[in-house]
Design a protein that fits this description.
The chain has 370 residues and is mainly beta. The protein contains three helices and 27 strands. Strands 9-10-12-16-14 form a five-stranded antiparallel β-sheet, with no helix packed on it. Strands 11-18-17-13-15 form a five-stranded mixed β-sheet, with no helix packed on it. Strands 20-27-26-22-24 form a five-stranded mixed β-sheet, with no helix packed on it.
Length: 370
């Protein structure tokens, strides 16, 4: 009997270890922080942004399948799928359409893979808050567009990438005592689509929203860009079309570039120096800074665009767009225009290419004018 106790204890401990390992293996979870994003009481803004940080905990694998917002006023952008350990981000954009309280849900469906099996699960996130009503309508609509009023001089999309289309709204206010109507035709560039809210007119002293969708990849341009679309009134046969400007700063999207070994699929721009200091110069001197661009990769390096800043002119053996073949180099010459005043000069040139490490490359030139 004296050997039964150790044997039983050993079996008991073995069972505990096996159970503990099983619990640890099954304890894989997808955690969001926070699960409810509360904006609190805020003043009205065209777009509200909420960031949810998330990460996978445990030894299993999680694949996010779908993210379904409650309504069209909410959109999402996933930084990365949480297959890798570490913290990633989910960006949620909410387009307010009324004042007062709001509470919007997002349902996340994901696949949990562990112990050789797969299971579909869901999580719910929420964004909520309270939008303070304005003191008066004139505080919201301060800019004139023909006979109408707007909240801003143009619709600014800010910095966007070529990954996907984005939608923003542009509101119009009719300050008159008469209804203001539009034609169904809207003249837009090919990469922009505009839709009226729900009708082709604005009631007396009422407002109307235009929903503007922008496809950055179809613009075929990078950096700061400006476009215009036109809406057509029908109130007066002599009514002129109303122009609405749209601005954006476009950057290229590089899928998987920041994952492990992600850069191997892309070319690499190598520069000896991105800053040239010409030192002391005189008014009679010709100021030229030279930058050597080198493609250190087996893939073609595409120079999409080169933008000369204030006081610069480009003198190069190539013109953008330009392709640098593998292991090829090219010289970019920048002619610096001098100021009338003596002293330190600072000039810049911005280069856009398909290297995710240097997609937007800033080149600087310094000099001291004697």
């Amino acid at each position: 009997m004296r050997f039964l106790i150790p044997i039983f204890t050993l079996l008991h401990l073995t069972a505990l270890v096996l159970c503990s390992s099983l619990v640890l293996a099954q304890n894989t979870s997808l955690n969001f922080n926070p699960s409810v994003f509360d904006f609190g009481k805020i003043d009205y803004a065209d777009t509200l942004k909420a960031i949810f940080e998330y990460q996978t905990q445990g030894e299993g694998r999680i694949i996010i399948k779908t993210i379904k917002p409650e309504c069209a006023c909410t959109s999402t952008s996933l930084e990365a799928n949480p297959n890798e350990k570490g913290v990633s981000k989910l960006e949620v954009l909410y387009l307010p359409y009324e004042f007062g309280s709001f509470d919007k849900k997002l349902e996340i469906t994901y696949i949990l893979q562990q112990n050789g099996s797969s299971e579909e699960k869901t999580k719910t996130l929420r964004v909520k808050g309270y939008i303070n009503p304005p003191i008066s309508i004139t505080e919201r609509f301060r800019f004139q567009l023909g006979p109408l009023m707007t909240k801003s001089r143009l619709l600014n999309f800010g910095t966007i990438t070529t990954e996907k289309a984005l939608t923003k709204k542009f509101e119009l206010h009719n300050p008159s005592k008469q209804a203001f109507n539009f034609k169904a035709v809207i003249k837009t560039p090919s990469h922009i689509r505009v839709q009226f809210d729900n009708k082709l007119g604005i009631d007396p002293e009422g407002s109307l929203a235009l929903f503007v969708t922008y496809w950055p990849d179809q613009k075929k341009d990078y950096g700061s860009v400006l476009d215009t679309f036109w809406i057509y009134p029908t109130n007066d046969m002599n009514s002129q079309p109303l122009p609405i400007m749209v601005s954006a700063n476009i950057e290229q999207h590089f899928p998987n570039a920041h994952a492990a070994d992600g850069y191997k699929d892309y070319p690499q721009l190598l520069m000896v120096d991105s800053i040239v200091d010409l030192g002391d110069v005189y008014s009679q001197d010709t100021l030229i800074a030279k930058f050597v661009l080198y493609n250190k990769s087996p893939k073609n390096l595409e120079i999409y665009k080169i933008v000369a800043g204030y006081g610069c002119k480009l003198y190069s053996v190539f013109q953008a767009p330009y392709t640098l073949s593998p292991n090829e180099s090219a010289v970019l010459e920048v002619h610096v225009l001098k100021d009338k005043m003596k002293g330190k000069l600072s000039r810049s040139v911005t280069l856009y290419c398909n290297d995710p490490r240097n997609h937007v490359k800033l080149l600087k030139v310094y000099a001291n004018l004697k």
